[in-house]
Structure to design on (171 residues):
């Protein structure tokens, strides 16, 4: 399924591929990759048991995505181990690891570069760019979707306060 009229990129209308997430429904399973001691995987099952914030960005190599990742890293540090936090992009896992090292980011990053299943199943693939749309997804400890925010203009930042207020309700 394709959805038009949801987002723009620098004012140009874009198309999202996949179905929109249903708040109150189960989060689709996923397998993402990250650079740990080699190339490792992260699945939805790995995140169950704690509330989870998924910060979705097109590419960490862009200023707005870097700002978003740094801001959530800073804001979420105070919550410690009471939550899971992950930034998802289509950057290669090793590029994500370099970015986090250079920017002193503690938040986990994971990549949808290999299968693109996360983007499709979460309805966040930008058809024209083959990148992920800017979004924030919150899951409860059981993996149920409790909040979604798709940023209407990809080049703009999300509403951090709204996402963090919803996350704090889960802790």
């Amino acid at each position: 399924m394709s959805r038009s009229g949801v987002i723009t990129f620098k004012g140009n209308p874009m198309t999202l591929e996949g179905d929109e997430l249903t708040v109150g429904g189960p989060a689709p399973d996923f397998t993402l990759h990250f650079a740990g001691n080699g190339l490792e995987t992260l699945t939805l099952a790995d995140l169950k048991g704690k509330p989870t914030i998924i910060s979705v960005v097109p590419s960490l190599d862009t200023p707005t995505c870097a700002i978003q990742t740094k801001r959530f890293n800073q804001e979420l540090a105070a919550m410690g181990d009471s939550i899971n936090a992950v930034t998802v992009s289509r950057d290669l896992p090793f590029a994500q690891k370099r970015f986090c090292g250079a920017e002193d980011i503690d938040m986990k990053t994971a990549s949808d570069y290999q299968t693109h299943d996360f983007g499709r199943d979460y309805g966040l693939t930008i058809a024209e760019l083959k990148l992920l749309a800017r979004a924030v997804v919150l899951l409860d400890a059981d993996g149920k979707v409790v909040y979604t925010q798709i940023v209407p203009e990809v080049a703009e930042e999300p509403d951090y306060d709204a996402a963090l207020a919803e996350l704090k309700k889960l802790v």
